[in-house]
Specification:
- The chain is an alpha/beta fold.
- It has a single domain, classed as Rossmann fold (3-Layer(aba) Sandwich), CATH 3.40.50.360.
- It is 34% helix and 21% strand.
- The chain has 5 helices and 6 strands; from the N terminus they run βαββααβαββα.
- Strands 1, 2, 3, 4, 5 and 6 form a 6-stranded parallel beta sheet that branches.
- Helix 1 crosses helix 5.
Length: 168
């Protein structure tokens, strides 16, 4: 079985979480981690599990203006994000989503929820509720214990997928 973890990350925090999730998934599946700008179009994916992660910006998934703002503040310039990548077409995949989110103040909105809702509308089956991993500030760093929690969540996703997939 195969999984791909597609992430959007200007500061490196969401990428680090994606890599930790992949490490946990790797106990059950062959797993690849790919930046959203390098990911194949959604309809072209042939995987048993797609995990999608993005930072929460302006109460949800990033937009060109929020990515530009992150770049002005020192983050990597991203020309595309999860919002646009999901819009590349529909797919019938099993998916899970996550986001990174500033812990204090705990503002409303989560990128992972928006991604899951859109993917469900596009024909995907959501394996687990979206998960949030917390950063100290907009630029990070991740709060202590978040990478271990991400690895554990990845392991749990792999276990759930294995339990839900009929053996051939």
């Amino acid at each position: 079985m195969k999984a791909i973890v597609v992430h959007e990350s200007a500061w490196g925090n969401t990428r680090a979480v994606a890599e930790a999730i992949a490490a946990g998934l790797g106990l059950h599946l062959t797993t690849e981690v790919v930046a959203v700008g390098e990911a194949p179009p959604l309809p072209d994916l042939r995987v048993d599990l797609l995990v999608v992660g993005a930072p929460t910006q302006a109460f949800g998934l990033s937009r060109p203006s929020t990515r530009e703002d992150a770049h002005r503040r020192g983050g990597r310039m991203l020309t595309t994000g999860v919002r646009e990548w999901i819009a590349t077409g529909s797919a019938q995949l099993t998916v899970a989503t996550f986001d990174t989110h500033v812990r204090h103040p705990n503002l409303p909105g989560h990128a992972g929820h928006g991604a899951a809702k859109t993917l469900r509308k596009m024909g995907c089956t959501v394996l687990a509720d979206p998960e949030t991993f917390y950063v100290e500030d907009y630029e990070g760093p991740l709060l202590p214990g978040e990478l271990e929690r991400a690895r554990e969540w990845g392991e749990e996703l792999g276990r759930r997928l294995a339990e839900s997939t009929p053996s051939g």
